[in-house]
TrEMBL record:
Pathway: Glycolipid biosynthesis; glycosylphosphatidylinositol-anchor biosynthesis. It is found in: Endoplasmic reticulum membrane. It is a multi-pass membrane protein. Pfam families: Mannosyl_trans2 (PF04188). The chain crosses the membrane at residues 97-120, 141-165, 171-198, 210-232, 278-296, 303-321, 327-345, 352-371. It comes from Pyxidicoccus parkwayensis. This is Glycosyltransferase family 39 protein. Keywords: Endoplasmic reticulum, Glycosyltransferase, GPI-anchor biosynthesis, Membrane, Transferase, Transmembrane, Transmembrane helix. InterPro entries: PIG-V/Gpi18. It comes from the Bacteria.
Amino acid sequence: MARSASRTIALVTLVAVVLCGTAAGMGAYRLWHKNKENPAVRLDEYVNMGWVAWDSSWYMRIAEEGYSFTPGEQSSVAFFPLYPLLIRAVETLGPNVYQAGVLITLLCGPLALILFTLWARGRSDEETALRAGLLMACYPFTFYFYGAMYSDALFVMLVIAAFLLLERGLLLPAVLVAAVATAARPVAPAVVIGLLVRRLEWKRERGEKWSAVDFLPVLAGLGFGCYMLFLWHKFGDPFAFVKVQGAPGWDQRPGWHSWLKVSWFERVILHPTDKREAFRLAAHAFFTLLALALVWPTRKLLGWGYAVYVLAIVGLPAWSTKDFMGMGRYLLSSFPVFLTGAMLLKQRPMVLRGALAVGAISVIALSWAFGADYYIS
């Protein structure tokens, strides 16, 4: 009997949650006990501490205090509202703000991987879907699905659910789910155009004529639009989330310096003063270029809709970043490339096994590093 891809991935994900949570907790233990005056805490608290770092504090602040915006300074408006709103809702059930954030990720991350495997099975066969699920589960930055207090797991889960519903002919539910998703991350154009092109392609594959209803995916940007309206009403600037990216410390100002990746070339190739930083930035650039290289194979294997979606979901942040930092995490949204990769590696089992082995080790190691407060993504 053939293995059930989704059940296998569910088991793999459970193991990954335990292993990565343990690694993050060990990282937090190391960080906490660097100061010998810190008191001992419960073991479960180390795990929770291990998954709360860097941007987690922004989500905490939004959930607890709401939004703020000071032109020219780092401000919470850079972070979209869906995740902190859910944190606030879960808090009402008893957990504190950090526990709530981690619990949401622990629910959404594994569910995203299971939904991805179901989607992949609909576009291929059981074994290929299993390989695709394993590739995604072992991708080094998938540790953000296993507990980290970030919005990525929530966003990816909703986007995959939207495309899964679309493939099953449920257009309106797909658009509604996607509209919720675009309130979580500032990449609404990618979701909108991906759903729209795939819907039109889906109809053509069945020999059906297009109608006005098929253009409903344009409404998937409502979550994004509602956040802009909120910023306009509260701060008088619907583009505050864009403008704040140029604040000192973030320094992601739109312009040729960012578009040509001058900072990346200086820090990685021309004047690398920190070898660890240079390696980190090179790794993010590598994964970005790999995802972009898979756009055309995705077009051939999965169609124009998914190719356009991948190009947009990767291209938008890659274009705007000054040094590719964070792209490894953002690429989790480009879920079709994992199925494309599985299809391309079907006749290369040794390469596939090697990629899975390296990925599995990396995702655990990065979980430890995240818990130890190293700047990962």
